[in-house]
Design goal:
This protein is 23% helix and 31% strand. The longest helix has 33 residues. It is found in: Bacterial flagellum basal body.
């Protein structure tokens, strides 16, 4: 009976992770470029219970040989799913959508120097503190968007901005079109290695520990026709599926809670036997 309570208690703690993941997906259903996470489970430690051969029961118990007793279930993986989200037309020149899965915009590195990537193309202009005639292209969190050379994208204060499908930025003023720069696009070849860096950004863990180099996980894609101006990529969260997963997780949680309650009642009956 103790084992039954342990199994249920352990599993309840792991199911809580699934509830948290589904809740986070639902909370970000309207976040631009958000990628959902899916949780998968596996058995925890399993022990082999041999048949008893004691006393008059020389032939053992009347149960099949090789009884396996588990210790509950645990989260084996919480994976990010990078399926393409639907495109929503906004008509705003600084709204850029990536039209193919696996491609990302690159923004300025974090404080530790780690490269950061995003699918959220809702960009804005921020005054350049060192040049009054220029604006910096930033994301919703104020991080600089990088060009193909790895430098912050700068734009003139005046003029109409156009971003082509290959990420080339041009500014038209008084009928004269001038090419300003090229957005840095990267193709992540091993997206399963990405980890959340906050604010809808992704980054790679320490590749040295994984015995990998950057060339093994990404490749430069500047100039690839994967950008659409005046549109944003919606999240790839399916509300119906997430609600179903949430309800299923809640039922599993209740089932294990009931198992603990039943085991407690059984132990109480055994204790009160006279």
């Amino acid at each position: 009976m103790n084992q039954s309570m342990i199994n249920s208690a352990v599993t309840m703690g792991q199911i809580q992770a699934r509830l948290d993941t589904a809740g986070n997906n639902l909370a970000n259903a309207n976040t631009t470029g958000f990628k959902r996470r899916d949780t998968s489970f596996s058995d925890l430690l399993t022990r082999q219970v041999d048949n008893q051969r004691v006393g008059p029961y020389e032939n053992g118990r009347l149960t099949p040989e090789g009884i396996r007793r588990g210790s509950g279930a645990g989260v084996s993986q919480t994976a990010v799913r990078f399926e393409q989200g639907s495109l929503q037309q906004t008509g705003r020149p600084l709204d850029l959508a990536v039209t193919q899965p696996g491609y990302f915009f690159e923004v300025a590195p974090d404080e530790e120097g780690n490269r950061r990537f995003t699918r959220d193309g809702a960009f804005y202009l921020s005054p350049n503190p060192v040049d009054d005639t220029e604006n910096l292209l930033v994301d919703a969190e104020g991080s600089n968007v990088l060009d193909a050379a790895g430098n912050p994208v700068t734009l003139p204060v005046t003029g109409d901005i156009t971003v082509r499908e290959d990420g080339t930025i041009t500014v038209t003023e008084d009928g004269v079109e001038e090419e300003i720069g090229q957005l840095n696009l990267v193709n992540i070849t091993k997206p399963q290695l990405l980890e959340n860096a906050g604010n809808n950004h992704f980054r790679f863990p320490d590749l040295d520990e994984l015995e990998l180099e950057e060339a093994d996980v990404l490749e430069a894609a500047a100039g690839t026709d994967v950008v659409q101006q005046g549109a944003l990529e919606a999240s790839n969260v399916d509300m119906g599926r997430q609600m179903s997963d949430l309800m299923a997780a809640q039922r599993h949680y209740q089932f294990n809670s009931s198992a603990i309650n039943m085991t407690d009642q059984m132990m109480g009956m055994v204790t009160n036997l006279r």
